[in-house]
Amino acid sequence: MKKYFYGWGILYGLTLFLACQAKTDSGTIVAKVAGHSLTFESLEESFFTTLEMFEDSLVQHKMALAYLDSLVNQQLLVRAAYAAKLDQDREINILLDEQRPRFLIDELYKMVILEKSEPSTQELKDYYKKSGEQRKLRHILVKDKAEADQIYQELQKGGDFEQSAKEKSIDSGSKETGGDLGLVAWGTMVDPFQHQAWKMKVGQISRPVESIFGWHIIKLEEIKKLEQKPFQEMAELQKQRIKFAKQTKLTQEFLDQLREKSKVQLDSGTYQLMLERDSSEAKRDLLSPQKLSGSYIKMESFSESERNRPLLNYQGGLITLREFLEQYLKVPPFQRGSLGDKNKVDQLAFQMVMGDLLEKEAEKRKAYTRPDFKKNILKLKESLMADKMRNDFIMVNAKVTEEDMRNYYDTHLEQFQIPEMVKIQEVLVATQAEAEKLAKQIRAGADFAKLVAQHTLRPGMKERGGIMDSITQAVSAELFGAVKNAKKGQIVGPAPFRDKFSVIRLLERRPGKQQAFEEVQPRLRSLTYEEERKTTFQNWLEARKKKDPVEINQELFQAKLDEKLSQMRAARPAGSKQRISGQLPLKVKIDKEGKIEKVDD
Q1: What is the pLDDT of residue 591?
Q2: 534: in domain
Q3: Cβ(18)–Cβ(113) under 8 Å?
Q4: Which of 69, 215, 313, 388 has the fewest CB atoms nearer than 10 Å to its CB?
Q5: What DSSP string runs through 436-498?
Q6: 3-state DSSP assignment of residue 187
Q7: Per-residue pLDDT tens for 147-203?
Q8: Collapsed DSSP state (helix, strand, coil) of residue 118
Q9: In Å, how far from its chain's centre is CA 465?
Q10: pLDDT confidence of residue 2
Q11: What digits encode the pLDDT tens for the residues 280-324?
């Protein structure tokens, strides 16, 4: 049995290749490689999204031309690879066969989920109308219909809804408050529940409604009208919400149908054997606190023949106990759940065969005939061919001698310098006035570490007394610059640090030094080899361009680029995108909230 472990919810995430696009759409030709056209329209949309973050048009153009060059170079590699018959290479075709199921399943996901989840105009209007209010709801949740029917009849005879919820509901989140769900917005509850809730009148109690959680009896207590933005302003956001809801529903329905059609069934005998062995192992552990069922199970608990027993049978295959345990034991105990939960074990085993079942279903539906499948297979194949051409045919000529290393060292001395470093003690505060006050106290003999513990705003420094070591110009130009002319022990400050102020004591200064050739051999060899690889590849490109002429229309490319970025800016809501200014090369950082900032040297 093939083992493909896919998360069906993320199957649409295709790998992006920095390869020449296989698109054949007509478009604006911006480059040609031996007659093969590259169109502006074939470039990856994600690249333009990244490019838009940069404010300087010169930076944008420089990055875009570098990207176009990389595509041209990739096409040169691909053409050379075809000439070397790498399209027939056994290793490449084996790798391609291994990835084929992924592309098949991706196409299946498009066929049965994505292409059916686009909302209609009427669906958008209905969603907008229902989003104009919130409904205050209570519910009673039980496991089976018979109990739900009985509770409903009792309520119809005058029973107390809140008391019934407290006594009989299995929803731990609401039973203590009499089933109170508060104000509920459309789109936040499962479909059967919310469709029923939005049909009701205030004060009405619904008949039992089934969802994936069980059987609900719903009571509507209040309808609260909301102010809404105009329909057109909300349409795109609500479209995405509807698509997500439909995709979730379609996915679950499809997997349920696939499971039923494939006759997936857990073997009760093998499942019972697992429970017995786990229980036997648990009885031997007399000292540890009681653990969940499944915490003691191990491969050694079973004989070879027992390991080969089927645990899950399905049409066309099976999962053995060994195969299940190999995956089950990799999951941390606290994430496995109880082995005694048969539904959980059944679900885990089904996930193990799901990839196999999805691949077979994709084959049955002839997903391999779809244009996107063929295009993506070709992209991957040519990407693998280009990689092999570069690494096994071109770079094999890249070699490094002692003389090469010496030349590199002599011409890049700045790379082998240990910079001047300082060790400091610092307290960081919000205002200059506060910093001046602390500086005065420290100069008068106050305990620096105590003041740090009481006042510093720098994370992690209170426990360390504000001591920071190995500060260089590159690490922090502000801190290093503040003590540049200070003597050991001297107090400096207030010194500006971004929007705050520092008071600093210089504890130690370590002068920079030039590392000797002999000290940097391993790193030097790596750097020299990388330089040689670049030179080798550049020489190969120049030679190849004589066989495969390259034409790049930079003027047209830049005009189309400006037009594209202008359209993206016009379609972007004000303030929705961050901008980065500066010349290449730029350093950026992303904080925990996703804010992007340029890092100054």
Answers
A1: 45
A2: no
A3: no
A4: 69
A5: HHHHHHHHTT--HHHHHHHH--STT-TTTTTEEEEE-TTT-HHHHHHTTTPPTT-EEEEEEET
A6: coil
A7: 999 999 999 999 999 999 999 999 999 999 999 999 999 988 888 999 999 999 999
A8: coil
A9: 37
A10: 39
A11: 888 877 666 677 777 888 899 999 999 999 999 998 889 999 999
Does residue 114 contact residue 10 with C-beta atoms inside 8 Å? no
By the 8 A CB rule, do 92 and 384 touch? yes
What six digits make up the tokens of 595? 């804010």
More confident residue, 92 or 601: 92
Tell whether 164 is covered by a domain: yes
Helix then strand count (H, E) for the chain reads: 20, 18
Give the structural domain span for 599: 1-130+233-397+553-601
Rounded Cα gap, residues 255 and 243, in angstroms: 18
Quick: pLDDT tens for 239-271.
988 999 899 889 989 999 999 999 999 999 999
163 and 297 part of one domain:
no
Burial class (CB in 10 A: 0-12, 13-18, 19+), 295: middle
* CA dist., res. 306 & res. 273, Å (int): 9
- Do residue 500 and residue 441 come from a single domain? yes
Residue finishing a domain among 227, 245, 262: 227
Residues 5 and 48 in one domain: yes
What average pLDDT score do residues 394-415 get? Answer: 92
Kindly state whether residues 489 and 591 are assigned to the same domain. no
What is the chain's mean pLDDT, rounded?
A: 87
Overall number of domains in the chain: 3
Task: Report the CATH number that the domain containing residue 194 is assigned in CATH.
Answer: 3.10.50.40
Cβ-contact 119, 239 below 8 angstroms: yes
